[in-house]
Amino acid sequence: WDTEDHARSILTGRTQEEIAKDLPAKKRAAASKKPAAKTDLPPGARKAPMPETISAMAATLVTQLPAGPKWKVEIKWDGVRALCFVDKSELRILSRTGNR
Asked: Sign of dihedral through CA atoms 72, 75, 81, 83?
């Protein structure tokens, strides 16, 4: 599997280069220089402590996507499913089974 053979958006069918060309010059420059902005919590959301772990979803191998326009594809790779926890300046990466 070569990612370059499949380097198009599943939503628009465009390449990264085509998507980047559509950005106004100011947005292109800002996107490459600014760190992500801190956003407000969505309505009804509550702040909570960072969890120690969560249960990762496991990919299921199927031959066809479910019916309906809202489904997207997730490639099922053989490998490790990682959970990343970013809390201020701390990063923890765990496997699906909880190994660091």
From this structure: negative
